[in-house]
Amino acid sequence: FDHKKVTVLFVLGGPGAGKGTQCSHLVDDFGFCHLSAGDLLRAEQHREGSEFGQLIQTCIKEGTIVPMEVTVKLLQNAMTDALKETRPGDGWADGRGRFLIDGFPRKMDQAIKFDEDVCQASMVLFFSTTEQVMLERLLDRGKTSGREDDNVESIKKRFTTYKETTMPVIQHYQSLGKVAEIDSSPSVEEVHQKAKAVVEKILA
Ligand code: UP5
Ligand code: MG
Hints:
The protein is of the alpha/beta class. It has a single domain (6-203), classed as 3-Layer(aba) Sandwich (Rossmann fold), CATH 3.40.50. 56% of the residues lie in helices and 14% in strands. The chain is built from eight helices and five strands, in the order E-H-E-H-H-H-E-H-E-H-H-E-H. A five-stranded parallel sheet has the order 2-3-1-4-5, sandwiched between helices. Helix 1 (19-30) packs across helix 8 and helix 2 crosses helix 3 (53-62). The radius of gyration is 16 Å and the shape is globular. It starts with 5 loop residues before the first strand and ends with a helix. 35% of the residues are buried. Residues 13, 15-21, 36-38, 41, 59-60, 63-66, 71, 103-104, 106, 110, 137, 140-141, 149, 158, 184, 187-188, 191 line the site of P1-(adenosine-5'-P5-(uridine-5')pentaphosphate. InterPro entries: Adenylat/UMP-CMP_kin, Adenylat_kinase_CS, P-loop_NTPase, UMP_CMP_kinase. ATP binds at residues 16-21, 141, 186. This is Uridylate kinase. Keywords: ATP-binding, Cytoplasm, Kinase, Nucleotide-binding, Nucleus, Pyrimidine biosynthesis, Transferase.
């Protein structure tokens, strides 16, 4: 994708940190196209004829990372579709497609591949809070979400993958000066106001 035409912000943070929740507010504020890698994988898992259904299901349940080729391709396709559809006022505010890529890249190989094949992200929004807060939020959501990974056993595995595999990605972008860390422990609205201010600066 042409850098002049698209702006990409990665949205990272532990499982249940509030990435999806905050992204939907930022969509309302700034007209981003919000693409959650996890949501795209779940859709692919249930797509009839997908050759990756079983693989994705296993990875999600075990909290491991789906091979990057699958996820990068899904994101690339979704971005292409979104750019075809975008109209003024629809993420094209100043003629540039704006994307929030949520829950990605969570492993270094994905970050490198996306950089090379798709485009470079301008910044990373990093929503951080404690494991205790994340655990409570996920167990609460698990009562109604139907997500196969919202149970204590899967959540613990997701935390381990986050610490061992995703934190190094965040540190990589920190070393490039590309990370804006936002404490996501307070209320949704408080976090939203902070995130909104950060994004305003980035887009200015
Ligand atoms: N909530 C949110 N904010 C709150 C606040 N400030 N105060 C109180 N409550 C708050 O929020 C979680 C819950 O908390 C909700 O009930 C919300 O109302 C409440 P949400 O916004 O959904 O948090 P989010 O960070 O998006 O949590 P999610 O569970 O989606 O994060 P994960 O990163 O674990 O999940 P994701 O869908 O990104 O990935 C799932 C799996 O897919 C991964 O484990 C992995 O196996 C696979 N995957 C890959 O293999 N590759 C990828 O690139 C991406 C995913
Ligand atoms: Mg999410």
